[in-house]
């Protein structure tokens, strides 16, 4: 019996089926186990510019490895999607859009300081 592989990889041939299987098995569910010590890494989203680089790949790989390692050590491990950690890139895009669409000039950081959802301390 001859088994030939396709010359090109088409993710549509596999990813939907594999993703559905992962979901069915609870691969993305995090449940707190009171018998295990918790371990969590917050995974920041990609930058608003959409320009990913090797630093992003390295960071994501390290987070994945640490989370899996802690799970193998018996921790109740969670790799959690987080919030924007590099608001400078976001601010640049927002200011560019406001300048173009509405002709507004904004001082750097002014909008963020007035409208931040993060509670100010001190």
Structure commentary:
It is a single chain. The protein is mainly alpha-helical and 122 residues long. Among the domains are: 33-83, no CATH class; 85-115, no CATH class. 42% of the residues lie in helices and 10% in strands. The chain is built from four helices and two strands; from the N terminus they run αβαβαα. Strands 1-2 form a two-stranded parallel sheet. Residues 115-122 have low confidence and may be disordered.
Cross-sheet strand order for the largest sheet: 1-2
Question: What structural class do the secondary elements suggest?
Answer: mainly alpha
Figure out the total of helices. Answer: 4
DSSP E strands, number: 2
What proportion strand? Answer: 5-15%
Order of helices and strands: HEHEHH
Tell me the major beta sheet: 2 strands, parallel
* Overall geometry: extended
Give the overall pLDDT as a whole number. Answer: 75
The low-confidence parts are 115-122
Distance between the termini: 73 Å
Describe, in short, the structure shown.
With 122 residues, this protein is mainly α. The protein contains four helices and two strands; from the N terminus they run H-E-H-E-H-H. Among the domains are: 51 residues, no CATH class; 31 residues, no CATH class.
């Amino acid at each position: 019996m001859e088994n030939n592989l396709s010359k090109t990889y088409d993710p549509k041939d596999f990813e939907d089926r594999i993703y559905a299987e992962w979901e069915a098995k609870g691969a993305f569910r995090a449940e707190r186990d009171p018998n295990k010590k918790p371990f969590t890494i917050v995974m920041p989203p990609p930058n608003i510019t959409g320009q990913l680089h090797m630093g992003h790949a390295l960071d994501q790989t390290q987070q994945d490895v640490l989370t899996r390692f802690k799970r193998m050590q018996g921790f109740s491990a969670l790799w959690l999607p987080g919030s924007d950690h590099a608001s400078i890139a976001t601010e640049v895009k927002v200011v560019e859009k406001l300048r173009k669409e509405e002709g507004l000039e904004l001082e750097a950081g002014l909008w963020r300081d007035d409208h931040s959802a993060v509670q100010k301390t001190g």
